[in-house]
Amino acid sequence: xxxxxxxxxxxxxxxxxxxxxxxxxxxxxxxxxxxxxxxxxxxxxxxxxxxxxxxxxxxxxxxxxxxxxxxxxxxxxxxxxxxxxxxxxxxxxxxxxxxxxxxxxxxxxxxxxxxxxxxxxxxxxxxxxxxxxxxxxxxxxxxxxxxxxxxxxxxxxxxxxxxxxxxxxxxxxxxxxxxxxxxxxxxxxxxxxxxxxxxxxxxxxxxxxxxxxxxxxxxxxxxxxxxxxxxxxxxxxxxxxxxxxxxxxxxxxxxxxxxxxxxxxxxxxxxxxxxxxxxxxxxxxxxxxxxxxxxxxxxxxxxxxxxxxxxxxxxxxxxxxxxxxxxxxx
Amino acid sequence: xxxxxxxxxxxxxxxxxxxxxxxxxxxxxxxxxxxxxxxxxxxxxxxxxxxxxxxxxxxxxxxxxxxxxxxxxxxxxxxxxxxxxxxxxxxxxxxxxxxxxxxxxxxxxxxxxxxxxxxxxxxxxxxxxxxxxxxxxxxxxxxxxxxxxxxxxxxxxxxxxxxxxxxxxxxxxxxxxxxxxxxxxxxxxxxxxxxxxxxxxxxxxxxxxxxxxxxxxxxxxxxxxxxxxxxxxxxxxxxxxxxxxxxxxxxxxxxxxxxxxxxxxxxxxxxxxxxxxxxxxxxxxxxxxxxxxxxxxxxxxxxxxxxxxxxxxxxxxxxxxxxxxxxxxx
Lengths: 330, 330
Description:
The structure is a homodimer. By secondary structure, chain A is α/β, with parallel strands linked by helices. Chain A folds into two domains: about 5-10 and about 230-325, Lyase, Ornithine Decarboxylase, Chain A, domain 1; about 30-215, TIM Barrel, CATH 3.20.20. Helices cover about 30% and strands about 25% of the residues of chain A. In chain A, strands 1, 9, 10, 11, 12, 13, 14, 15 and 16 form a nine-stranded mixed beta sheet that branches. Chain A has a seven-stranded parallel beta sheet with strand order 2-3-4-5-6-7-8. The first copy, chain A, is elongated. The model of chain A has no long low-confidence stretch (mean pLDDT about 95). Chains A and B meet through strand 9, strand 12 and helix 9 of A and strand 9, strand 12 and helix 9 of B.
């Protein structure tokens, strides 16, 4: 199939850029040093490419992602890097065909996991991002409580997410070091083999964690591009020009097709003015006709993927494959 | 079913607030004076409630919405208030069980409509929002061209969307008047019965259009609440508190469950700090425990609805009905 046969808005992965990104990351963090985060793409076919490069453990943000990965035969070592109190979802994870480890950061989350048949946990530690995670000094108490309730404690996780977008590399690095010092203090209290942390923004400046939970590196977005990382833009939203006026043109990919929490997307060869539900208004550099196709570069890869049922893998004008975005929802 | 049995994140409609909004709008714009925009809710069950109040014509933003509305028996008079060049989608609309009118603003869109079996069009006129629509002075030429190609021209549409969020009512009103003057000039050139325009922000200050395309009024969001309109907040995202630290708490409804293009959502009884993919970090006013439920108020109703497969209609603690959000996608 040719690119021009696709109905728009269509989500595109540039096959060459994806390949480059997977290869580059696997060279930096081979095998179990990387636990790819599937929330960034929600696509088991893409996860299979990551597994084929030797990364057999995965990070998930929702129970649905965990269960879906196990169903797809990718259940060797799945971490829900998030807290859940939902008995139906915890039981579904406990019963799925895979090894499932769940993050816990409170007595309530430990009790819910134990009650629903989960066997293994990581203690989630707050290392500076005001989100989930216990204070580092509470990690030992929680680990003991989990063990008392029959859970195996595999170690700690702590996401230094407040540092991912820090533009200056040295400042980012100093922040990561301070965060990881807290995580290692917590780890000394919990025991276990795993110190899980990191993301695309810290993948090469976090030697303290023994596995990195990066996800965005595979597809990239305009937010991560600002950091000057060695990963290429692989994700695009393909749009048709449906209207044109002197001074601007309008494409049919609007904010319902794009993650907007990082602001407007970019475009190749154009300046974006604004997005509406089903439109993107932009100023093209060259001449464009109604019916022409254009590429939009999302500001944030994760929610962009979550808005599409499928993604097309393309090489030049050829559509090589179409993958379902099969881990959407909760 | 009780509210507390719902898995979160869950989309909630307050039945009483919805009823109030539908009633208030139908009193202001009875019957055909309102052509409700289904892009705001993407839900045929909600559209049936609007139809039951006498609004039998609907506005759609995507061909999928048009075809889905016709399938649901709501095809009396469906307007695609958007341009399409997609032959498969134009043909699907032409073949659906309903009366379908399509917006056109160029020779290309007219030719596509005529070629694919569409019978009726409105000329879409740019009245100030830099998006689709021809210059007012081009409307006559396009109407003639459409008629030459066998299309029936039902009139004009022009969305004064650049004015919807103008806080001061008098400024908004003056802007709407100027925009509608342009639309009426175009209408004088096209003929036809319809002058379609407006939205929730102009529903009571646009006497120039003979039908108003409002959609958000039914469910509302924080953006439209700023205008002091007589509609109540009816849409909420229900979240579970999954983590708690001194000073903040974390709910399990993040930016993948919320339209973020208008910025952070609000919360009842709490201050929102930030949203991540699957989390909302907030400062609660009172005391909250892990496992408690909270309500989040979306910033923008349209993309929030588009992120959920279903919506629950609730009255107090009781879930009255669950409706599929069945018009998602393109």
